Amino acid sequence: MAGVGICVYAIVIFVQPRETTERMILGRNDFMQFYAGGRLSGSPAIYSRDAVQQVMEDVVGVRSDSISHFSRLPFYSLFMRPLAMLPYRAAYYLFQSISILCFLLFLWMFIPGCRELAAYASLSIPFVANLQNGQDATLVLLAAGLSIFLFRKDKLFWAGFALSFCAIKFHLFTLVPVIILIQRRWLMLWGVLASGAILLALSFAGAGAHWPKAYIEAVGAGRMHPHPDYMPNLHTLSVLLNGAADFAVELILSIAVIGTVVYLASKAPEYELAFAFALVGGLLISFHSYPQDCVVLLLSLAILLGKPFSRRSRELTELAVSPIPYFCMLAGAPFNLVMPTILLAILGTAAYQAWRSSLVPQADHRR
């Protein structure tokens, strides 16, 4: 399957536009802002658009309207500082190597118990998109996977400790703390809080006392969220259905998704199942998500393939990680409705199965 994956990725690189391939090879992608963040770590200018653009122009020779700010929490800039000490191209290739290694480590943890995962991983379009865009989605995939790996070994505190590193892309994991609280995984919660306190301290060390205000202003900039047509979330659904973003529609759908995940967390027999559905729900309600972020669905699939909970949800998750919905996303409207619809269907079928299962003990009692 590794050979199949290499062939598939080679074909994608061959058929994609030449400028996309050049952008990936030269590192003219999101890694530019990570590198700039590493250069500016320890400085209040970390969220200054002008400072980030100046670093990008100095080391890459380009400026970008869409890649205009450092978009991660300040602790991440400290993690990037060692790479920022290297020449840009060397730092970029090392970062991509780390990204691939994280993906392989995730597979090493889960393929022995889920052989089918190898096939889906070898055809993962989000993994290709992650490399094309110089993104770090595989880092959070490894952190989330490591958390489940440690949970299975009954190391709950360390499972929570590892989970907190998903704060790199915290908007994808907003529903996970909810299921930890609902299922009363207190030892995991202590692990999350302990590691989170360390990351918070590093954030203040990396950007000064006033970074929260600067960060909110930076991520709130409209240029930080281009191309909603390529987002696999409720924001895209709202834009496509109404012709423009409709806050009321997004709010109603988000409340429905959150309510469904809360219901599943209270009814699901295991924490892992609730975690898998929380990843799906988090992807849906995240305002900022793109194809590379869907790589976290491989963890949801790895969990669902080993649990006889809902066959329909499992099959829909297999469809979600296949190349089909991503080709639909690239095809534009109305085909890019496919991905958020599949994700909503995963939660809907799971909630229906949980409701049906809750009726069984009552029926047995009446008998």
Give your account of this protein's structure.
Helix 15 runs parallel beside helix 20 (338-366). The termini are far apart. The chain is 69% helix and 0% strand. The protein is mainly alpha-helical. The longest helix has 29 residues, at 338-366. The model is unreliable at 361-367 (pLDDT under 50). The chain has one domain (2-358).
Distance between the termini: 50 Å
Unreliable sequence segments? 361-367
Number of strands: 0
Instruction: Give the topology string: H per helix, E per strand.
Output: HHHHHHHHHHHHHHHHHHHH
Counted up, domains total 1
Q: Which features characterize this protein?
A:
0% strand; 20 helices; disordered C terminus; 367 residues
Task: Walk me through the topology.
Elements: H1 2-15, H2 18-26, H3 31-40, H4 49-59, H5 74-84, H6 88-110, H7 117-122, H8 125-132, H9 137-152, H10 156-163, H11 176-182, H12 186-207, H13 211-219, H14 234-242, H15 247-267, H16 271-285, H17 297-304, H18 311-321, H19 324-331, H20 338-366
Compact overview of the structure:
The chain has 367 residues and is an all-alpha fold. The protein has helices at residues 2-15, 18-26, 31-40, 49-59, 74-84, 88-110, 117-122, 125-132, 137-152, 156-163, 176-182, 186-207, 211-219, 234-242, 247-267, 271-285, 297-304, 311-321, 324-331, 338-366.
